[in-house]
Amino acid sequence: MALAAKTKYHRVLLKLSGEALLGDRKFGISPEYTRYLADEIKKVHDLGVQVAVVIGGGNIMRGAAVAEHGIEEATGHYMGMLAMVINALALQSQLESLGVATRVQSALTIVEVAEPYIRRRAIHQLEKGFVVIFAAGTGNPFFTGDTAAALRAAEINADVILMGKNAVDGVYDADPRQVSGAKKFDDLRYRDLLEKRLGVMDATAAALAEERDIPIIVFDISRPDAMIRAARGEHIGTLVHSH
Fold it and tell me: Residue 198's pLDDT is what?
């Protein structure tokens, strides 16, 4: 696929939380909202941009939370990784129903439903025009979906991480849904992000993205066309960068 001249980024990694699939539900997956997300991804893919996705599992199972209720912590994290696989399959199904060729690569070996993660294969699939969904986080307990996103972005040489949030259009100094008058940042350095403890991503993910000099755009995925605007390089949300 030829890259459209109007896009700034050639290869992007979209990070979605598991909660992004909830829609108006309190638990599980909303097929309607998952289709909306697939449609937003398709818009970017149709520009010729190579799209990879990392999606969390918090809508089904959050490993750290179940560990607080007696389940051994590492086991809880593995349960959360399996939830990520479920979400990846749901998103894959909706993308393919829209005619977008998609592959799921899992950091845990589940060959019946997903390919194993192989870096060179993932890059080859992106170059062939597939949307590649990275499932099961890093495959290791104690690491978040944010860290998985930064790691995979570094491994595939992504130009940018697009971090889609739900009903929050960037990074604020407090939760704008709870604090009236919260200040939005147009851009931030990774160091500022950590020093101010803004909680947008965990410290490991921020440190890795900073070290690899991968910018992150934090934007509201629930706003139609927000992702395509970010891919085109328009000023949207908050830009987090090294310099």
Answer: 82
- Is the whole-model pTM more than 0.90? yes
Domain boundaries, the chain: 11-241
Tens digits of residue pLDDT in 203-226: 899 999 999 999 999 999 999 999
CATH topology of domain 11-241: Carbamate kinase (3.40.1160)
Q: How far apart are CA 115 and CA 161, in angstroms?
A: 23
The structure tokens listed for 22 are 């909830």
* 121 — pLDDT class (breaks 50, 70, 90): very high
Question: Residue 1 has what pLDDT?
Answer: 46
